[in-house]
Amino acid sequence: MRTGLAWLLRKETLLLAAAIALAAGAGAAWYLLQATVLTIAVAPRDGTEPELIKAYADALEAGGEGVRLRILPFDDVRESAAALQDGRADLAVVRPDVLLPTNGLTLAILRDQAMVIASPDQAPVKGFPKLAGKRLGIAAHRDADLSLLRNILGYYGLALEMAEAGGAASRERAVHLVPVNQEAVAAAFRERRIDAFVSIIAPSAPKALALVGAVRSVARNGRVEFVAVEDDGAVIERFPRLQSVTVPGGLFGGDPKLPADDVKTVGASYRLMARASLSRVVAADVTQQLFEKRTAAARATDAAEYVQAPAYDTTAAATSARIPIHPGAIDYYEREQHGLVDRYGDTLYLLGALAGGLVSVLAWIRQRLAGLRRERIDEIVDRLIEVIGLARAARDPAQIEALTAEVDALAADAVRFARAREPDARTMSAVSIAIETARSTLADGRRGAAGR
Length: 452
Known about the structure:
Blueprint: H1 11-33, E1 36-42, H2 49-62, E2 67-73, H3 77-85, E3 91-94, E4 104-120, E5 135-138, H4 143-155, E6 159-162, E7 174-179, H5 185-190, E8 196-201, H6 206-217, E9 224-226, H7 232-238, E10 243-247, E11 253-254, E12 257-258, E13 263-275, H8 280-292, H9 294-298, H10 315-320, H11 327-333, H12 340-393, H13 397-420, H14 425-451
């Protein structure tokens, strides 16, 4: 019996198997070293976030980092949040008071916004109740900003009405919202088209400074009155996706100090959120790059300067908050480092299991082939003994020639065995003796047949 698997133990086969194993290892290493490309949903299209995320994406690519961003633009933050919700994106710019994805966890705050309501000192508006019947100017705004303003006014029993500039409020408890171009804020106050001005904006942003400066320019004594949300704690309980914001005294100027004291208000945040199923390692990497690449991104946009970590006291508070933080982001904030095993543990375990299984299979094949070869040698010796008996009884020259050919074939098998593997000397000696005996017996039978 010949074994068709003998080629598996040839040197060439083993070298080829080793080369394949090395290639597989190199392929696995190449795969592990490839950059992770994440799809990020970005909105609003006319906001600062698209430019900010583009700056980060460019910085990541220029630095050859292991995380890359593929930008998916949307017109509105409701759409970007929906893209995260339905799985079209791994990351998204989200404004929680507009739409909070059920599968979204915070990585970082991209921009905190505060509701800033200001009026000049000669006609100050000193609280929300005093806004009743007033004309409130507003520059470029979004539906989300109007919703926030409407909710806060509603909390104080006020209604919000939209009308053309210069009109009067139609109800006593209504606030008349007047659209005003940012460049025309001072003129609108001088012409008495508005009594106060509102903006939902990052308080320290250049645009906020310019707007407050416009109000200050028409103030008689250079002072500006800010409307505070004194009941900010209760307001947040009522509208939990908003947040308390304190505008620090002196933010808009130091002489005179503007505002004179800290002003409590409420606002909303634009957040970078990740799907909850995103691995902690990748989430930590993305969060790390947000802060490590901030200087590079700031060269393209000032918005990078406002990126900050979400506030939390304890890890438990962070993961159980109304707007929870991704565990991977917490790992970065708490400086939990991830090593190679943490990052690729599952993949390495799988590769190790596959390699172990492959070694076991090869070992079994070697053992099985070795057994088959030993069986083949035994078969050769047994058949040679049979041939010796047949040769002694043979009288027909044709039969003797057939047995001689068979002995030659058995000898060839023995030689192939000896070349493929180094057998023990005793085994080969027995084979050699059996072959010589068989040939000698056949030679005697050939001479006997010739004499007859």
